[in-house]
Amino acid sequence: MSKRVPDFSKLRMNVSGRVLDPKDSAYESARQALIWNKRKPSRFPDVIVRPESVEDVASAVRFAKHNGLQVGVRSGGHSWTASFMRDGGVLLDMSAFDKLHIDATKTATVGPAVKGAKLIEKLGELGLFFPAGHCDTVALGGYLLQGGFGWHSRRRGPACASVRSAQVVTADGEIVHVDAERNADLFWAMRGAGPGFFGVVTEFELELYDCPSVLRFTAHAYHFELMDEIFPWLANTLPELSPDVECSALAKKDSDTGKLSIQMRGVVLAESEDAATAALSVIDDCPMRKRAYTRNHNLPITFAQLHSGMDKNYPPDMRIALDNAWSDARPDDLLPGIHAAVESMPNSPPTHFMLQPWGRSPNLPDMAFSFEANIFMIASTGWYDPADDDLHQGWVTDSMRRLESKSLGIKLGDENLASRPAPFMSPANFARLKQIRQAWDPTGLFHTYMALPDEA
Fold this sequence. Notes:
By secondary structure, this protein is an alpha+beta fold. It has 13 helices and 18 strands. It has helices spanning 8-14, 27-33, 54-66, 116-124, 140-146, 153-156, 184-190, 227-236, 273-284, 303-311, 331-343, 389-401, 427-440, and strands at residues 18-20, 47-50, 71-74, 90-93, 100-103, 107-110, 128-129, 163-169, 175-178, 200-207, 209-210, 214-223, 245-253, 260-270, 294-300, 319-327, 352-357, 375-383. The strands form four sheets. It has a seven-stranded antiparallel sheet with strand order 15-12-14-13-17-18-16. A five-stranded antiparallel sheet has the order 5-6-10-8-9. It is globular. The relative contact order is 0.12.
């Protein structure tokens, strides 16, 4: 029996923004343009809607509900799996929701399509700051929903903890305000549910912070043979590492020598040059420093330069795959799995395995987000040839699968759920999330996760 195709002319009458179905000549180019990754999934919504107002969003949701269609939501398209792109249903492209207003009360009202780099830039002009994403192409919508680990998050916590309120279109097509007192259960779910959130956020209210006056960067490069010394040493620095510092070690090919190397980096946001120097000294005075073949320490840097450096790991014209893990294991116990990952690494320049000392944020509010650990690890790769898809996808999946016995779970945002289901919040929080979903979206109007741990 053929699938009944809704009459999209009624949707076009009620929505001022663009409405594209597969019969439109522009549909396929628009579908592909929504996805940041050059690896485009073979998933095709029944219709793509680009709303221009919250009323447009509500109309599209009501249309979907009336016609038995599920709903997906795309803010910036930076999800490497394109989890927002599903077969069938309505895909809401929120690109037009790029409003940005900064208030004198140290709050900002932002649309989900606002890029974090733009927010940092505008706030910096006013001496303010928000822990936005590491990559300049990351929009705030998906970033805030999944937790939000960005610049200065070790000090400020995940960015979702700094969301004061939001405007949400529910599964009934109603426009509601959510905060700690109004629709508090939906507010709880919104901060951490990620791509499984059962509503459309059209506006966030963010708490802002004074911008630290000093931004510094440190980078050391070591020969690969030192990995077994550097990775455990860096992980063990966590107790003495200032929350103002974010540091990592990457096993990757050196762009200058072409040889496998260990790149150790640190970034600090501090209130003074002395404080920055003291915070970075943990890395700059590391025991291996005299064996580094390049060493740049405590250099002034800008956020624009930091974003540019991050972009080199995720070139915009490449096919990308990632996977990640949180762990509280002893660093030495992680080395066998890390070795297996690095030694099977595909031969492409952006490919890397990263280890990062992180820790748990103190005083987090009660919200769906609930996973952090002492160590964060990520396997990331990029390539050009579609014929190499299985090789690279297999590498990131297998690399983290080898570490599963030492892992607590994963971070949403870099998830690989379709290929390797893994927990992404505490069992108690996930059970509560299911209950709230049942209350707000009992028919499952909104797409949920690509896969869940209990569906493996």
